[in-house]
């Protein structure tokens, strides 16, 4: 998507200028993984016009393979608007993506040959399921192809109340929740969307582990860090890294990129969780949606447990 944001905390309708950024949950995670040194292919459907081509170029410029994008001249580019706030005025997001090119992607447009390659993990989110039935069916078919090819499936619930209700989200996402090898779930959604009855993080993990015993479940808690439970039932907890916040958007996608990166490199769940929290903390210091981090930056934070904020000379 393209994201439009008034500068200097101005309100939409007040400003006569906007910042423009590339956004999108899966594309954010793809960029994070590519910048951490992994081969990543991004699957999408995009409008063949200057805005659509700019979005794809920006993602490709970060090292992501964009050769499988489906181009169309028939549909529009999805957009959204961020109005930044400061307490007591909350930041607000407004979506304008009905009828977007991606919302009309069909299962038949998936590059089947990619699922017979050496790819190891397929990642998607509940946002893709929420934008349209066609996009949801395409994501579900991609999961089927991934399973048939022996790939692991990563799913981030990523509930957005401006897209759909909690009931509709759970009904649509439940098959992917059950199919996931790695399941990313914000703590706030564990009760309201998934229906967990426990409230303490480790208890939530144990409750959901009984429902989905074969996945590694990662419960994210913002400034409180994250908790993970493995299929074996072993629980790991990681505190958040201190970060001077510039922008939180994209932090959860950076978290998934950090975790999947460490997992692909053979790290255990506890260490991968640490990488995830470090990647999210670094993203909080960056404007825009894309996690423009790099491996030395994340490694330094993981190993030092702190960041001074001093200028490196």
Question: If you had to describe this structure to a student in words, what would you say it looks like?
Answer:
It is a single chain. The chain has 313 residues and is of the alpha/beta class. The chain contains 10 helices and 12 strands. The protein has a 6-stranded mixed sheet with strand order 7-8-9-10-11-12, with helices on both faces. The chain has a 4-stranded mixed sheet with strand order 2-1-5-6, covered by helices on one side. It is globular, with a radius of gyration of 19 Å. Residues 307-313 have low confidence and may be disordered.
Indicate the topology:
Elements: E1 2-5, E2 19-22, H1 25-35, E3 45-47, H2 50-60, E4 70-72, E5 79-83, E6 92-96, E7 121-125, H3 126-131, H4 133-148, E8 152-156, H5 166-179, E9 182-186, H6 187-192, H7 201-211, E10 216-220, E11 226-229, E12 235-238, H8 251-264, H9 269-284, H10 295-304
Helix pairs in contact: 1-8, 8-9, 9-10
Q: What gap, in angstroms, lies between the N and C termini?
A: 36 Å
Name the structural class. Answer: alpha/beta
Strand order of the largest sheet: 7-8-9-10-11-12
Q: What is the overall pLDDT average?
A: 94
| Net shape | globular
* Unreliably modeled segments: 307-313
How much of the sequence lies in strands comes to 15-25%
């Amino acid at each position: 998507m393209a994201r439009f944001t008034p500068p200097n905390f101005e309100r939409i309708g007040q400003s006569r200028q906007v910042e423009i950024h590339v956004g999108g949950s899966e594309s954010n995670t793809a960029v994070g993984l590519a910048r951490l040194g992994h081969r990543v292919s991004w699957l999408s459907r995009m409008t063949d016009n200057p805005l659509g081509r700019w979005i794809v170029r920006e993602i490709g410029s970060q090292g992501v393979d964009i050769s499988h994008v489906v181009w169309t001249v028939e549909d529009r580019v999805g957009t959204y608007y961020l109005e930044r706030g400061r307490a007591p005025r909350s930041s607000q997001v407004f979506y304008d993506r009905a009828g977007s090119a991606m919302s009309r992607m069909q299962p038949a447009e998936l590059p089947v040959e990619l699922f017979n390659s050496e790819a190891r993990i397929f990642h998607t989110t509940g946002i893709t399921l929420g934008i349209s039935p066609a996009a949801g069916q395409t994501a579900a078919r991609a999961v089927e192809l991934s399973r048939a090819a022996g790939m692991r499936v990563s799913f981030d619930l990523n509930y957005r109340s401006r897209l759909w209700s909690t009931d509709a989200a759970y009904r649509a996402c439940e098959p992917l929740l059950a199919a996931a090898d790695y399941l990313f779930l914000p703590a706030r959604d564990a009760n309201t969307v998934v229906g967990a009855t426990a409230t303490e993080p480790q208890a939530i993990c144990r409750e959901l582990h009984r429902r989905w015993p074969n996945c590694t479940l990662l419960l994210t808690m913002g400034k409180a860090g994250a908790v993970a439970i493995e299929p074996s039932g072993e629980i790991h907890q990681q505190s958040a890294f201190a970060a001077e916040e510039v922008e939180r958007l994209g932090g959860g996608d950076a978290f998934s990129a950090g975790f999947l990166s460490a997992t692909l490199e053979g790290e255990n769940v506890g260490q991968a969780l640490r990488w995830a929290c470090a990647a999210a903390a670094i993203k909080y210091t960056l404007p825009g949606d894309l996690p423009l981090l790099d491996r030395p930056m994340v490694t330094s934070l993981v190993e030092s447990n702190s960041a001074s904020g001093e200028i490196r000379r």
